[in-house]
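Next comes the chain:
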Amino acid sequence: MYFCVITAVPVAPVNVSVSQLRSDSATITWSVPQGDTVIGYVISQQRQDGLMQRSIREVNSSSRACVLWDLDEDTHYSVQVQSIGLQGDSQPSHTVHFRTLEKSDHYPIGSIDDDPTMEGMDLNSNLQTGELLIVTTVLLLWAG
């Protein structure tokens, strides 16, 4: 008697949205349907004029947000998110379009919660073994 376990690739992320829009950055957030085994995400970003494409692949991550940096001001972009599963990547999410602000646009005065550099940061989390090894190596090289 043979048993066959079929593990499909996860479904595409849903509710992809853009928040904390600035002249040079934007935060992308998304949701994942329950039940899928997801081990990471791929965020694909493209300028509408086709001059630049970027893909960010995060593995071993449960984060549902990503800050896009080094964007050009007053520029139209599109972004899609894919889930990474044990058997492959999902189809891309629906495309979300946005335009970065101009540098002259004023940002609302806010707290650290409004800062995209702190988005998704758990200030109480412990360093994982790989991160600790990298930090230790960099410090030893710097001290030497």
Observations:
- DSSP finds one helix and eight strands in the chain.
- The CA atoms of residues 33 and 132 lie 32 Å apart.
